[in-house]
Fold:
Amino acid sequence: MRALAAQRPSPLETVLAAVCGALLFAGQPQSQTSVTPRFEVVSIRPNKTDERMNYGVRGDRLFGSNMPALGWIEIAYQVREFQVNGPAWISEEKFDITAKAEGPGAPMREMLQSLLADRFNLKVHREKRELPVYALMVGGLKMKLSKDQTPWAGDFPNGSPDGRLTTGASPTVLSPGRFLGEAIPMSMFVTLLADKLGRPVINKTGLMGRYDIDLRYVPGSGQSPSDEADQSRQADASTPSLFTAIREQLGLRVESAKGPVEVLVIDHIDRPSEN
Structure:
């Protein structure tokens, strides 16, 4: 068993899948009975292709292709890769899953947990561990307050039904080397930044408003704020490393720290049988 995020950073597809999962399941009714909710029909097949990862929920159907078991666990338990401690194969072996519920409005996240327990024999528990984190602080603020200062709730305000981030007039852009969004609260920004950096980010900015953010950086450069080798490699480049971009373009700074992090520990998991 090992902490996966410490060994390999999340690919962009996994980040987007986790974000979409948090949005799609947000606000869905949770089961109020002692009966564990389950999908009516489930299909699971291993995928050994290089096709693009895909995930979504439409009405009473949940579907995904070329998704690692880790991605399904992240969505079901609303955690990110660096919070999961489990065997290496769950981030390497990928599966196509299609599941059908009784009807729209079903508690999809609980049902996905049941699916993982039934078909992967997944058993987990949560615990707090003292782990490396990042602290995000103000360092000569350069971001501009958005015109939209509507109060928000949670990390992802105004998530649309199809999973897009719609905090402003335009969907937020999450792509390699680019973060572009309107009316972004810091609670949302630190959550997305944590996926890029591969460890939790604590919001110590004290900023309570919504901001318009346009961040451009070298993809894959988020390793350590004190990585002098990374800084020298980018010294002559027109695009800076992620940490430099945060400092120069947003007027924020990132510092290494340690803090309590909730970890999802996988006690047992099997490869599912194909059907």
